[in-house]
Amino acid sequence: MLVRSFESAANGMLALMDQNDNTANNLANVNTVGYKRGALRFKDVMESAVYSQEGSILRNDTSRYLGNISCGSQSLQYTHDFSQGALTKTSNPYDVAIEGDGFFKIQDDNGNVSYTRNGSFVVDRGYWLKTKQGEYVLDVNNRRIRMLPEDMEDETVFRDRKDIVIAENGNIEINSYNQKIPLQTIGVWDFSDKDDLFEVGDAKFIPRDTVNNPELRSEKFTVQQGMLELSNSNVIREMINTINTTRNYESLTKLVSTNSDMLTTAVSVGRIRTA
Predict the structure, then answer these.
(1) What mean pLDDT is predicted for residues 182-197?
(2) What angle do CA 80, 141, 122 make, to 5 degrees?
(3) d(CA 128, CA 176)
(4) Dihedral, CA atoms, 220, 121, 227, 116, nearest 10 degrees?
(5) Residues 207, 97: one domain?
(6) Is the Cα torsion angle 191, 193, 194, 196 positive or negative in sign?
(7) Alpha-carbon separation of residue 188 from 85, 96, 257 (angstroms)
(8) Could you list the residue range(s) of the whole structural domain that residue 144 is in?
(9) Looking at the DSSP assignment, which residues form a beta bridge with residue 63?
(10) pLDDT-wise least confident of 67-71, 115-119, 140-144, 241-245
(11) Cα–Cα separations (whole angstroms), residue 46 to 8, 11, 74, 183
(12) CB-hemisphere CA count at 13 Å for 197?
């Protein structure tokens, strides 16, 4: 019984360490645009059925099922809370936020694709729409978005950034001297199984299983120009989680210490009786 108690406490302490790391990561990203708070799912390590033996075994009396005894829990899966974060106004025409479902699709110089809710974009010297980390933003046809019409090579087509208009469906237009020039449409993509998404850093995600969980065109969204989606990680909630995790860890530490004392006492008694 002591061995089972040691095992249960050890498994619980390891799970709480994972929980504490997750909470610390959420706290570190409370100001990260488009960040989705991480969450852990736990499972019982092992369960043993418990029966109550009624009467004498010699008389073949039947036993009564009482339940299961768990040997503690362990981290099963790291997931994310993809609930909507609050939107904040920036008035920067290149800042966009998704209200609803979906992700922006971005691509690095090597062609590697990831998905993000961080719409803090910039335009480089080649007039390409990019993230602040330098990834290209892709349109609905998976093409890199250029903030100039194809037949123009400089930005004299518009006088300032206010001439850039991004509609709620992602369509980009330039208001050039009372003339609206359509460009490309920002792609917004979604996945049927968001639990399959793996975070690669900087609030960017990739699917683990691209075959069974392919990208889909999002249908329930609006693109909000001049706004950004804030992190959905809450400082107060994460601090409460930290306090609860610490208290639970301390309780398990005391349990291990108590079991150790009991085991030491049992061994000492056994030696005295043997002597």
Answers:
(1) 95
(2) 65
(3) 18
(4) 40
(5) yes
(6) negative
(7) 17, 12, 54
(8) 87-229
(9) 53
(10) 67-71
(11) 9, 11, 10, 58
(12) 27
Spatial CA neighbour of 163 closest among 146, 185, 180? 180
Residue 75 lies inside a defined structural domain of this protein: no
pLDDT of residue 57: 43
CA distance 33 to 233: 11
- Taking the CB of residue 28, how many other CB atoms lie within 10 A of it? 12
What is the three-class DSSP state of 129?
strand
Spell out a b/e string for 47-64, using b for 16 or more CB atoms within 10 Å of the CB, else e: eeeeeeeeeeeeeeeeee
- CB atoms < 10 A from the CB of 268, how many? 10
Q: Is the dihedral of CA 54, 57, 60, 65 positive or negative?
A: positive
Residue the block writes with tokens 């499972």: 43
Which of these three, 229, 246, 265, is where a domain ends? 229
Residues 266 and 219 in one domain: no
The residue written with tokens 């809450």 in the block is 234
Tell whether 174 and 133 lie within a shared domain.
yes
Total structural domains within the chain: 2
Asked if 238 and 225 sit in the same domain, the reply is no
Residues 6+ apart with CB under 8 A from 254: none
Instruction: Specify the amino acid at residue 180.
Output: K
Structural domain contains residue 59: no
CA angle, 79 then 193 then 172, to 5°: 100
* Same-domain check for residues 34 and 106: no
User: Which residues are CB-neighbours of 79 under 8 A, at least 6 positions away?
Assistant: 38, 39, 40, 41, 195
Kindly report the average pLDDT of the chain as a whole number: 83
Cα–Cα separations (whole angstroms), residue 51 to 54, 61, 171: 9, 12, 66
